[in-house]
Task: structure prediction
Amino acid sequence: FNLPSIVLDAKTYKEQQKRGIPNPFRDRQIVICSMHYASSKAEEIKEIAWDLVVIDEAHKLRNSYRESNRLGRRIRWATEERKKLLLTATPLQNSLLELYGLSTLIDERLFGDLPSFRTQYINYGGDTAGLRDRLKAFCWRSLRSQVVEFVRYTERRLITRPFKPTEQEHKLYEAVSNYLKREETFALPSGQKHLLILLVRKVLASSPHAVAGTLEIMCNRLLKIREEARENANALDLLISDVEIDDDLLDEILEDEEDGLIDEDPEVTEGRPEEQRKQIDLKKLDAEIDELTDYIRWARSLGIDTKTRALIKALNIGFRAMEEMGAARKAVVFTESRRTQAWLKEFLEGNGYLGQVLTFNGTNKDDASGQIYQEWLSVNRENGRATGSRNIDLRAAIIDRFRDQASILIATEAGAEGLNLQFCSAVINFDLPWNPQRIEQRIGRCHRYGQKHDVVVINFLNERNEADRRVHQLLEHKFNLFTGVFGASDDV
Result:
């Protein structure tokens, strides 16, 4: 909007300090930063009398009333008693307590304390009419159905691409699933077991290449434990506390896990004692290492799996639909694993799409992204588009390259929010998230204001996977709502 502004991140913050500005947040222009960075600089933000604090993607702070939500609580503390504008296009997902959590960011006294809110609006049926009246004073919700006379929204076309894994692929899935169900395993310590099982199940449904990489990390940790255990039988600290996982996927799982705690009693969840350490049985440890090694070898031996091959057919369907509509030949493919992302890029480049595939994830540290960034910077350094923040400019560089040159963008969950891809008319969900709302966010990258064509949405459905089928049923219901009368969850 041609308003004076500055983006603050670790790099630009240090640059400002080198110029003699001790607190770069003290600036008379608009200051823009990420939620995580704002949380890390909460003390410096709190000392400033902001005219207005604008929080985009505010739904991410819906659990800020909880002691466990450190990010939300620090931002709430840093900005208390300041005027705020909270923005989100993501409807409520799980509980009315999300309304309570967001209200505490504006003013902790709006609804009183948590027990009072529960008693009045949730327990025993709740006074929903009274809640609506209270919300009218500070909550403004706009639906697509209210703006259709001013904004032309195109349609969505849902296409399902079922695929049936081979017998070997399915047997690997079953074998690893049974391993995850076992009561006692060294690679899945009790204190971390639930989270780790979710992570492994995610990559297991993504691709054999992804699950092999994750199991290798687990196996390497067990090898370290065995080496240490021969010297010290209480070496459980070496378990997978620092497993290298996809940050985008971890953020998603942690968010959904936190939502799952909504109706738990805090006294129960906060008072659980730590589990006692156990002596390591080296014989059992050796057997588990051998078992994981077999699974890794098995996954690697599968080569190009059925699901990966199905992507070529899905792209052909999508591009054919683009041609019929006169839309640009472009598709964004979503996966939940960076390993699968790299695997798909290599596969597509070797099967007719050389030079047409880009990747987008939470870091974009690969050489190709770095080259794209440098070329973009040389063109935009002097025209005002470069912000000085590498992360922001790198995102812009990849999007520009996708719009102007490439045909396919493979994105992880990091690409499900904040990207404007209305020049693209095909969304392919290679991996289906368990939360259908996240699929809605993905589709919203393309199906948004400025889109000139119908958006083709292709969902991969594993015919031998019950979880996939359940998610797909939810999606079909949501699409029926959308393509009929606009559903109540269709926020602008």
User: Anything to note?
Assistant: The first strand starts at residue 5 and ends at 7. The beta strands are 5-7, 30-32, 53-55, 84-86, 156-163, 331-334, 357-360, 408-411, 426-429, 455-462.
